[in-house]
Structure formats: C-alpha cells, structure tokens
C-alpha cells in the first residue's frame, strides 16, 4: 500500500507540534512570579485531585459529569492506545479491541456533548467550542474505522488508498483539534492546562475536602504592590487562568453579573489569558461584561491590566462572595486574582472608587470605617454590664463585638446575643475600646497595609489576655480571625477556638443550657452569609438552631454553598459600581419566592443589606434575635 | 498654564477630630492637591518639623516624588526657617491651609510669612484659574458657595479653603518610596511659646437654636449659611486713594490702628 505511512506520520507530526506548543505555553506561565510548589508531589496527587475533587464539583451537573467521564475518559484511553496501535505499530488484537471500546465510549459521550451544543445555555461560550463536539465525533469515528483492520474485523487494505487518504484528512482535522489545539490555545487547552493546574494549585489545602479561603498577605515595601501586569501574578495563577473551560458556571452564579454590573467572572479569566498570552478579546465568544462590548480589550504580558484590558469598575463590582470559586469545576481562584489587582489600584494608584478612599482614611485614623470616635466603641454596651478584658484579664469566652458596635441596627443583634449568653451563664468579656476593626473591609478594598496594621495591633491586644473561645456575630470578623490572622506570626489565637455565634449558640442549645420555646410565627427561610457558609463551611449550625425552635426552614433555591450574596461583601456597598438592579433586591426576591414571612440571617451586613430592600418584604432578623424572643421566662428568673 | 511656576505647598501634621490621632491635615491636603493640579513637576511640598513623622508618608502618597523637610524640634519656631527657605527657593506661589489642626493653630503663619517676605496674601482660595505673565487669577471662597475672582501678582501666599478640591487618595506604595529631602537648617526655639501654659480647650456651649424661618427655603438657608460679616463692602470702581482710605477707616474703627 502506497499510503500506509501517512496516518502514523500525521499522528507523529501533530504530536511534535503539540509538544512545541506545550513548551511555548509553559513559557507563558513561567513569565509569572515565582511561587514554591512541590512539583513531584503535585503531579502524583493530580490524578486523585482530578478524579475526586474536580469530579465532585462537576458532579453537581449530573448530565455533564457523565458526559465528560465518557468523552474525556474515552479520549485519554483511546489516545494512549492510538499511540501503541497506530504510531508504534504494536500488532495486538487485544489492544485494537480495547481501542475500539474506548472509541465507542468516547463516541457516546461526544453525542451528548453534541446534543448539549444544539441549544446551548447562554452561560456557555460559543465560537470554537461549538466545533468541539464535531471534532470529538470525527476523532472517534475516524480512528474506529482506522482500527478495524488491526482488530481483525476488516481485512488489511480494505478501501484501498482512497479510504486511507480520506481517513488521513479526517485524522488531520480531528487531531489538530485534540493535540495541536490542546497546547496552542484551542478549546482542548483545558485538559492540558487543567491537569497541570490541579497539580500545581496555589491552594493545595482545598483538595481532599479541605478549605482554604483566607487571602494571602501582600508583601509590603517592595517596588510595587499588588498585580499591575499579568506577569505580576504568580506563575501558577497564570496556569490556573489557562485551565478555564468557559463553562460559565461562575457567570451563572455571579451576583454582580446578574445585577448588570460590569463583571463576568468567566470573561475576567479569559481576559487574564488574553493578558498573559497577548492579543485582543475579539475571539471571545461568551457573554460580555454587562454593558461592555467585546473586542476592544487589548492585553500584553507587561501591559498594565487596567490600561486597556479590563476596566477597574469590573474589579470593583466583585462582592468577594466566592460563589464563582465554589462553582468552578477547574477550581480557579477568581477572588484571589481580583483582590490582587485591587491591591495595585489602592496601594499604588490610590484609586479606590467612590467612598473607598474616605473609608480607608477613616480606618487608618480611627480604626473603624465610618470615622467614629474610638472612645465611643463601647457605648452600645453601657447598660449591658459586660466585663472588660482590661479589668478581668481572663474569661472563658471573648465576645468579639466588631464594628456593629457603632450601628444601631447591629446593636440589636449584639444585645440579643449578650442576653442569650447571660441566660446560659457564660463567663464572657469584651475588649471594649481596645478592639479595632478586623480589617476585613480594608483588605477586600485592596489596602493590605491597613489590614496588616489592624491585624497586628488586634493580635497584640488579644495576646495580653487569656480566653478559650472567641465568639463573634460578624462572619467577616470571624473569617479574618479564623483564617487570616494566622499569617502574622502571633500566638495570641493559638489553641483558641474561633466561633461564629450560631455555632456557639447551637452548642449551648444542644447542651441544654438555653431553654427555648417553640416558635409560633409564620414561615421562615434562612439566608447563608457568604463569609459563614462558603468561606467557613458553616451551613448546619444556623439550621439546627432554627430547627430547635421547631422551625422547618423553607429553603431558597439558592441556599447552602449556592447561596446568593446579599451584595454587602468585599466593600461593594462602598465602591458602589452602578448596575441595572441591586443585588439585595434579587436576594429578597429569592426570599419572597419561598413564601416566607421572615428571613433568618447570621450576619449584620446581610441584615443591613436585606433590610435596605423597600417594603413590603419579609422581616429580616438575626438568628440571635429570633432565639432571644423565644427564651423561656423561667430561666431568667 | 506655563509649567515654569514654582509652587510650594506647606504641610503640617493634622489631628483627627474623633480619634485625636495624627493624620493628613484636611486643608493642607487640599493645598497639595491644588499644587499638584497647578504643576506636578515644579511642586515642592515642605514640612517644618519631625522628618520621622509617619503622616508625612500620607502626603507623599498623593503622588509626590519627594518631600522637603526642614527639621526642627517640637518647641521650634517654624516661621524663621520657612522664611529663609522661601527666600532661597524661588517660590512663586506658596499654598498653605487656613490654620493647622494641631499645635497653636492660630492661623497666623501665612500672614506672618507674607509680612516678612513682603508678599501679598490671598486668603481662603477655592481655585487658581490661570497663571500668566507674572499674575494669577484666583477664585476666593466666600460664604454660601459664592466666589470672588481676584488677580494677584506673583509671588504670593495663598491659604486654601475647604471649598477647594478635596485631596486625592493617598496611596501606600508611592508614599513609602518617596524621597525625603531633609535639609540642614538651624532651628530657632520659640521663646514665646515656652512661657505659655497649655491646657485642653473646653467645648464652648452651643448657642440655642431659635427657629425664626417660616418656610422650608428659609430653614435651608439658615442651615447652610456661613456667618456673613454685615459691614463688608466691595469697592471696584473707586480710585486707589479711596480704597486705601476705606481700609484705613476700617482699621481705625476696629482699633487695629490707634
């Protein structure tokens, strides 16, 4: 046969091209900043991370997870066997049959990919992605036919040179997509970059059921702060951007996108890719940032990102609710990237929008975002008869009051919680005026210098006293204390349990230290605060508390890890980027659709945001407030 | 605007009204902002005091490459060293706040500087519109958002009113990296101050509010009004002699001149 050499040559040729592409792509990532990664351990852990952690996220969409297992699994198996059977020419009918089986599996999967692409949801990118199912089908059919002689089903030489030529053309078409495209920026790039991203992930703690949500501290005092250019990202962050499959699950859950603010997490990640690879976003075929046309963004590895690649409004629209990160099947860290870029805007450019500058100035000068007198921090507790740590030096429980102390609505939550603690005879003390803002807002607004200053001073105060547990009603302070203060080399919180008040109260109820009457109001739903749920995994305690009152929570469609943000996180109410709708209004619609008369919340910020929605609307109450109204009288007497 | 104008903004250490902590002073920040707007390149920001004061980094964080410090102890007199500095600096426009937020806070410094240098003083500036041919067109801030345009010849000293553009956000990085030029100057001890006894001010009792306004518009006016001096008179068309006579009469009347 004259053309028998052609298919193996094509396979080999495309493999070499793929190899060259892989090296080029890796060099793009390597332009990023150094970050220590355990290469070998990462590569060894990669299969498990893929099969377990990543699959766990994909599994939320059963249709797609099965489709992907069939298509991806079939392809990987088939590709390995193709090398043996067709490139190295191993004569084995068993291998050939195995290859046929893998191709059939892949073909079935590809059919479902095709079916989904017939009428794709808006969150999916179109463009080259619409071509992918056809390439997958072509690949499986072509190699199926090509393998038939090797499996002994058809005699060698069937079809003659005409068939070989036709098959060669099809091989060229499909393998270009599958191999060449994998490393040169086609849709299959996600397999190559995704696998390495899993191996060298910046937060390996996330795998195996762990959680890693605290922001990484900025190094202060360098020639520049934060991320200005794509090459200022760590190399494995760049790799992470490249892993995106453009499935748009992030887009579907992003509250800012839904509100019509100029943010789309998927587009943001794609723009980061445009940035470090150079070029424009003209080829992007997904939903744009609301209100911003696609095709005008230009980027280069050493170009300032906010100079032409993305607008700073995009960065300031994020509420840091982490819904995109939670939902991303490739485990990309959108929030890290956004805060990294915000750090540059705030620490280097001094361009925090709207009230941002004023809030940061207040935090620096008065240790609270609204510029209240630090000496008035404990005024709310004038009638509460609370011990001050300054006087008692030690207590079982330290109540971290947070900046809710200055806000009259939040004070109602604080008082309710104090009343509950007194009812349970807890040995509690507060820091009083020694407490400072936790630094949450400063950090999310990109001012890591102010955050670190607050964190260190708070830790110094905490280290003076002894306590076993620290409890707060503010999930933002809770998150900082629990997950972010550990980076500053202090022993103040060593061996101390940091708890959110719902967790703490739930324990008291379980231990029988609080006597509560059954709740007889109407239907109640529960809103999961982002910083309690997604950031800290506490979904159960609030629900158990409500259940202990006999409340059967009418769950919203988006609850638990899929809870929709109230719009109050990440300094979003301060930077206040205009959109078409308010995030809090959308969340209240979620509440209303359950038919609930009351929405229980575990966060003063969520309370403020949801109560800001115009009436008539369901009542908003913190769980502590609901509990306190059900406190049995005899306990008090 | 010719970029050749040498602008000097004088800055002091402010004091936050709630926390009492050091901060970038409100009006001095505006003086730097105005200076940056006039000419970023030829702006010199000067502080007489402690070069180690961290608040100076907040001024530098507005985008200054350098900041000049005339070191002097807490009991030093800023006036003589500033006069020496300004005499030797070729400054054409000197901007200051109306009064400092800490220290004596008398608001006298710009006047004393103007007196010793023999320069005109333009009080409570809202904006400097143009500087050409050795003269500047300046908008003075008057009560209720009114403005008065005056033309003043260079060099001059201007105090910056709260009506001027707000100071831009200070950025940590540039502030940290700014170069501090610490000059070698002789400090002069403030002998007068050494004899004073300083005690905390008592808050003045608030005047009782008597609502006389009949309509909402009147109430709005009353709420937003700054105190207006009743006897003021704008003289535009009179001769120089008449204007001088009017000033002299006023000084006599106010018993400034006896």
UniProtKB/TrEMBL annotation, chain A:
One MF annotation (Gene Ontology) recorded for this entry: metal ion binding
Keyword Transmembrane: yes
InterPro entries from the UniProt entry: 4Fe4S_Fe-S-bd, 4Fe4S_Fe_S_CS, Csal_0991-like_N, Cys_rich_dom, HdrC_iron-sulfur_subunit, Helical_ferredxn
Pfam families named in the record: CCG, DUF3483, Fer4_10
Chain ranges of the 4Fe-4S ferredoxin-type domain: 235-265, 308-337
Keyword Zinc-finger (UniProt): no
A GO CC annotation given for this chain: plasma membrane
Keywords: 4Fe-4S, Iron, Iron-sulfur, Membrane, Metal-binding, Oxidoreductase, Transmembrane, Transmembrane helix
Transmembrane spans: 6-23, 69-88, 94-114, 135-154, 160-180
Name listed for the protein in its UniProt record: Fe-S oxidoreductase
Organism annotation: Marinomonas alcarazii
Taxonomic path: Bacteria, Pseudomonadati, Pseudomonadota, Gammaproteobacteria, Oceanospirillales
Automatic annotation (TrEMBL), chain B:
Domain Electron transfer flavoprotein alpha/beta-subunit N-terminal: 13-191
Pfam families: ETF
Cross-referenced SMART domains: ETF
Matching InterPro entries: ETF_a/b_N, ETF_b, Rossmann-like_a/b/a_fold
A single GO molecular function term of this UniProt record: electron transfer activity
Keywords assigned: Electron transport, Transport
Keyword Ubl conjugation in record: no
PANTHER family registered for this protein in UniProt: ELECTRON TRANSFER FLAVOPROTEIN BETA-SUBUNIT, ELECTRON TRANSFER FLAVOPROTEIN SUBUNIT BETA
Protein family: Belongs to the ETF beta-subunit/FixA family.
Protein name: Electron transfer flavoprotein beta subunit
